[in-house]
Amino acid sequence: MLAVLDTWWGGLKGEAGAKERALLLPRLYFQHFTTTSFLVERDGGQMVAFLVGFLSQTDPETAYVHFVGVDPALHGQGIGRALYRSFFALARSHGRRYVHCITSPGNTGSQAFHARLGFTTSAVKPDYDGPGLDRVAFTIDLSED
Ligand SMILES: CC(C)(COP(=O)(O)OP(=O)(O)OC[C@H]1O[C@@H](n2cnc3c(N)ncnc32)[C@H](O)[C@@H]1OP(=O)(O)O)[C@@H](O)C(=O)NCCC(=O)NCCS
To answer: Short name of one Pfam family for this protein (predicted)?
Structure first.
């Protein structure tokens, strides 16, 4: 997954962006969150898409999508939506009502995608993830779906 981040994110925010993204995937996600995450592969094992998510330990009504990506060659074919649908079903089966996630203000594609899926989008939250790391937050209420 680390190997595809730069291409799949189209080099968004240059070197600083690449560093931020790589730091979002420490090994712990592949040790402790595999049962709430999805990987889509071709027959030969080549990765097509992924969704890294988890059930909130703090809020029993909430699940969280930490990171999602689809091979750019396959954008617009419903793969992202299918991944979210799978995650929503998983979240519901664990009694979760809300799904949250965030993105960078500059990631307009992500914002359009989440809006299309029915997420509400917050105003830009300055320094949300630390100094200079502004974010936009998304929420969906699964009981309204
Ligand atoms: C965002 C992303 C996951 C969407 O995946 P996808 O498989 O292309 O999305 P889908 O084909 O399932 O699209 C679902 C809906 O969102 C819309 N949508 C998706 N990307 C869009 C974009 N960039 N601009 C406008 N609408 C978009 C689609 O048109 C579709 O709407 P429709 O049902 O009316 O046709 C993918 O573009 C991606 O991996 N981007 C780079 C990584 C990234 O930014 N990840 C998210 C932030 S962490």
So the answer is: Acetyltransf_1
Cα 75 to its chain centre, rounded Å, is 15
Give residue-wise pLDDT tens across range 65-85.
999 999 999 999 999 999 999
Output the CA 72–ligand 1 centroid distance in Å: 10
Cα 95 versus chain centre, distance: 20
Which CATH architecture group holds 2-144?
3-Layer(aba) Sandwich (3.40)
Edge-to-edge order in the sheet of strand 47-55:
38-41, 47-55, 62-70, 98-103, 136-141, 120-121
**pLDDT tens column, 76-128:** 999 999 999 999 999 999 999 999 999 999 999 999 999 999 999 999 999 99
